[in-house]
Amino acid sequence: MRVVVVGAGIVGLSAAYALRGTGASVRCVDAGEPMAGRSAGETRIFRTAHGDAALVAEARRASELWDEWSFRAGRTLVGAGGTIVSGPRVPAWAAAMAEAGAVHRVVRGVLHDAAGGVLDLAGAGAFLREAVLPERRAVEGVAADGTVRYADGGRDAADAVVVAAGVGTPALVAPLDIDVPEALSHHARFAFEGPADGPCHLDGRPDGPLASTYQHRTGSGHWAVGGHLPDEDTAWELGADEVARRSREAVVDHVRRHLPRLDPTPVAELRCVSGRGLGDGVHRARSGVVHAVWGDNLAKLAPRIGEVLAADVSGDTPVAAGG
Which residues pair with 43 in a beta bridge? Predict the structure, then answer.
């Protein structure tokens, strides 16, 4: 079987890696650099904690696969330390974890996810790039019969196509009547100097203009802090610079008031693009032999998404990872 994977972010590389494990001949292409776009940056938060028991189960399977990848890569891809969750979502998330049989505890209203930790996204990308060998090539269009048209005039005739192209996915699959939301927003997180220890933390309590915040260690030995602003402050039309300015102002104020162990002057920032209103979860659709996948916060589930897509393409589809 010949498969073309469009997109060399963490999800596309994961799909290509899993597909090669089935014996398929896989070409992975991207118009830009691998692990750019939504997969940029050194680290992410890994958690099994979710508000839906099915997603908790998917994250638990992803945790097993991250362990397998760590062994093959010769480096720890999800660090120990755990993830804690605070705020109004704790009861629902704890109930979902209990339903899924996931190890957790709630202490003084804080949910402790022992399987969580810092995801070494840069290390995972290096491991996958070496295994997959993605090509830099822009795709102009895909057809339901597996034809892939490249911007340079070339074509591929594939038995299956996986489109995991992030912000490029809606335009590529719209002609196939696959409706992927196109509304985008900007986001920025910031790194601060100070003790880079302790568990990852997702806090659902609002603080000033921030609806929620998150924090975790970075690969550079700093502490990353981000927050979620109202939609009007992250709108695509504002531009990345203005959204970063508004985000910086709110996050620095949060750090000054709540994280005194950190120097409140940012030493780095990471900008990314997200789909508006997608939240947790994975979305998949198919037209002919073209399989599309999209969503937000997908890095933590990437090995599992790749596993499910590979099974889907090969005809052994499990009911999981977005259905």
Answer: 120
* 20, β-bridge pairs: none
Q: Select from 3.40.190.10, 3.40.1710.10, 3.30.9.10, 3.10.560.10 the CATH code of 184-275.
A: 3.30.9.10
Note whether 239 and 186 are within 8 A (CB).
yes
- What pLDDT digit, counting tens, does each position of 280-321 carry? 889 999 999 999 999 988 999 999 999 999 999 998 655 455
pTM of the predicted structure, to 2 decimals? 0.94
Q: Measured between alpha carbons, how far is 313 from 254 in angstroms, rounded to an integer?
A: 45
Fold (CATH) for 2-75+121-133+278-314: FAD/NAD(P)-binding domain (3.50.50)
pLDDT in tens, 133-173: 999 999 999 999 999 999 999 999 999 999 999 999 999 99
SS in 3 state form for the chain?
Answer: CEEEEECCCHHHHHHHHHHHHCCCEEEEEECCCCCCHHHCCCEEEECCCCCCHHHHHHHHHHHHHHHHHHHHHCCCCECCCCEEEECCCHHHHHHHHHHHCCCCEEECCEEEECCCEEEEHHHHHHHHHHHHCCEECCEEEECCCCEEEECCCCEEECCEEEECCHHHHHHHHHHHCCCCCCCEEEEEEEEECCCCCCCEEEECCCECCECCEEEEECCCCCEEEEECCCHHHHEHHHCHHHHHHHHHHHHHHHHHHHCCCCCCCCCEEEEEEEECCCCCCEEEEEECCEEEEEECCCHHHHHHHHHHHHHHHHCCCCCCCCC
The DSSP bridge partners found for residue 270 are: 189
Q: How far apart, in Å, are the Cα atoms of 103 and each of 18, 96, 233, 304?
A: 27, 11, 37, 19
Indicate the pairing of strand 282-287 with strand 290-295: antiparallel
